[in-house]
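task queued by scheduler; priority normal; single chain, no ligands, no partner chains; default sampling; output format set to structure tokens
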Amino acid sequence: MYAEFFGLQQSPFSIAPDPRYLFMSEHHREALAHLLYGVQGDGGFVLLSGEIGAGKTTVCRCFLEQLPENCRVAYIFNPKLTVNDLLKTICSEFHVEVTHEGIGPPTIKDHLDPLNTHLLASHARGERNVLIIDEAQNLTPHVLEQLRLLTNLETSERKLLQIILIGQPELRTLLATPELEQLAQRVIARFHLGTLDKAETQKYIEHRMQVAGLSGPLPFSKKAVARVHALARGVPRRINLLCDRALLGAYAGGVSHLTATVVNKAAREVFDCDTAAPTARRHAQPGPAWLGTLGMGALGGALVAGALFWWWNTTQPALRPTVQPAVAAMTAPDEVPAPATVEQPVSTPAMALAVSDTVPDLETLIGSEAQAWRELGPLWGQALADGEACANALQHQLQCYRTDRMTIHGLRQLNRPGILTLRLRGQGTAWALLTAMTDDSATLQSGEQRWRLPLATLNDLWRGEFATLWRTPPGQTGRLVDGRAGAAAEWLDTRIADLQAHGHVPPSANNLNARIQAFQRSRGVDAAGVAGPLTFMQVNLASGVNEPRLVASQP
């Protein structure tokens, strides 16, 4: 629509993966080099992680184009599969015929035997076999363990199958959990794809505009480019969305030179954000290395954004409603109990709730986030009324936690009720409380109704937005950013020392930072030593702090 107005032959910022618009930053080239190095090794796992929209697919496409002719590739882009389905898909991708005798579905052995035969024959022909799994953060630990066993298919010289895992940052935290230690030890090459810096953002915009046919000067001013970088956080896909909308807005207004004001207006439409507020209030900018790896074990996706949120949460205006009466008291620092293996949920008001397996509609769900906080309050012993919930919660030793990158695994490991933001196709946005989980279902609640949905159905409705509360240490006043100082530090040191004494955390040097890092490593939290909300929530869980938990099932 705006192409001719700006002297372009086509839209320069389509999110379709057109190879003509390929822009390889230094980070992308380094990621590609790691993949090529890994596939030339003797087998094992290669790991490529990166933020949503950072260009992992772009790197993978370049990698596929540069593979030697003797490489045979199986590519799986939807890994939400059972072990049997995964093996069936791998055999199908490698054109391996699977036969099964007797009644019932094919077994794991029915797939492994012909696959092993195929790989041996392929190896004898001098071929290499590569399995690429995209969106690998969605793999369950059980399926990942089966993948590890696939690397046991080998000759005396080398592995018969090279496996490349591509996923969001929570994939790294998933592999850092103790149950996947054997797999992690088989990762021979890994790379985390970061975002573009300010100079690379400028080059990226110029590159795409020139490929689209721009022959004159760039229509974006320097301040506009800087604003694009700040609002898009250097993520290529976000840059595309923002620049496309900015060009469209400039065209609609008859403006041929884009300013920061035009970009701000476009951002409000595309990202639904308040561009008047400092960018740091919404998202941490690329910088400290620990921000790129934050997460916890199976807390796929989202907890990776946990560190980003606790910074955001210290400056963001509090959400509404108000917190009223007192909550159950927390155990004092000198009364640290032995870690509880199962945390009993805080008592909640008795309700006779109707259970339905059907997908809820917009009218039956919670209509606003403020109302959702009010309904969450009783689970934490609070009566939330109109007002600023997060600000008032602090008066009762509670702090809000919010992320837009949670996963099913993350919900299970955080193990606390909270608010899910749901996107109903063709209807809009609504909210529901998550109150229970099983291995294959989740229970959502709105008012006096609740729904028990298969996890696959929940994934279709939910994009990872989750909010909840957590209990702060005694003596903590104000939002906690880093608990390595003050009353919170003393409490944290006592708790982790007690966990170490009971053998629940590996021993470490006798100082707070070392103890924090030992605990973080044991729970899959990034061991940068910063003690943010993710660390405290896991300490609360491990040491039996009185907080509500997700119950295993509900009738």
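post-processing summary
- The mean pLDDT is 78.
- The first strand starts at residue 44 and ends at 50.
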